[in-house]
Design brief:
Blueprint (H helix, E strand, L loop, with lengths): L4 E2 L5 H7 L5 E9 L9 E2 L4 H8 L19 E2 L5 E2 L1 H7 L11 H11 L3 E12 L4 H4 L1 H15 L2 H11 L5
Parallel strand pairs: 2-6
Antiparallel strand pairs: 1-6, 2-5, 3-4
Length: 170
């Protein structure tokens, strides 16, 4: 959990309940901003084309509709994730070659490739007081770009891309 997350209500019972399903590798709560608006924390895996579309202003908004039922996105933002210990250990934790960005994308990709689901429970809500440093500071923007490039050069990215292309990956 990042330090800019605030928990205003009990979330752990619901998240723990989601983890009782042994096919779920990690669960995250619904993330809202201080104004109560839902943040885009559940997404499809990034691709260079999606990133370009977003950079040109054509691809904004959530990839997944969050109502009252658990959603199973490709990945969830790493600001708040809950795992069973054995799953986290089996995956080898976060890849330390990433710094600040994309370690969550990488871990969710590895989980999905091992057959686990990534879950987002909209019943559990937390408030995110986002800093968005990479939007304002060149240093953080460069770190974000380097991590993105690192992910696009990994075996999990290429394996998922191939499986999607051949229609063997949901």
């Amino acid at each position: 959990m990042n330090p800019d997350i605030r928990i205003n209500e009990e979330v752990f019972a619901e998240l723990h309940a989601c983890l009782q399903d042994q096919t779920v590798g990690l669960v995250a709560p619904l993330v809202v901003g201080p104004n109560g608006a839902t943040e885009d924390s559940a997404r499809r895996f990034p691709t260079p084309l999606r990133i370009l579309c977003k950079a040109l202003g054509g691809c904004w908004g959530s990839n997944y509709a969050t109502k009252d039922e658990t959603v199973f996105p490709d990945w969830v933002a790493g600001m708040f994730m809950l795992f069973r210990r054995e799953v986290y250990e089996k995956m080898g934790g976060f890849d330390e070659r990433y710094f600040l960005y994309y370690e969550d994308v990488d871990l969710c990709a590895r989980l999905k490739l091992q057959g686990y689901k990534v879950a987002l429970s909209p019943v559990a809500k937390v408030v995110h007081h986002a800093q968005r440093s990479s939007h304002r500071d060149l240093k953080y923007f460069q770190l974000h770009q380097a991590s993105m490039l690192r992910f696009f050069l990994t075996a999990p990215f290429w394996e998922i891309s191939w499986l999607r292309l051949t229609k063997r990956f949901q």
